[in-house]
Amino acid sequence: QVQFVESGGGLVQPGGSLRLSCVVSGTNISKYAMGWWRQTPGTRRELIAQITSNESKNYATFVKGRFTISRDNAKNTMSLQMDSLNVGDTAVYYCNLITPRISDRPNWGQGIQVTVSS
Hints:
It contains no helices and 10 strands. It is mainly beta. The model has no long low-confidence stretch (mean pLDDT 96).
């Protein structure tokens, strides 16, 4: 069973930085594209950053230039460096595999809360 454990969130002031980590167990991530999603209450989970197996990266417009996704296949982990955070980045962040069909996607982990507030 594939499992995801996200960490590194917390409370940060506007303009600050955080680095999220995702540890994956139950599969070898090297053959998968992976992504970070985020969700706020009452909204759908949205994909904000993705990285392919050959490390091609794509970002949602609203995080491009501020967030950086990376992966370490040897450690079976993925990270998200978040800089210049603003209040609008407050959300629960999740990691997961990017699969051709949503139905093939593993169950979500618990996610990690990121709160940007002064």
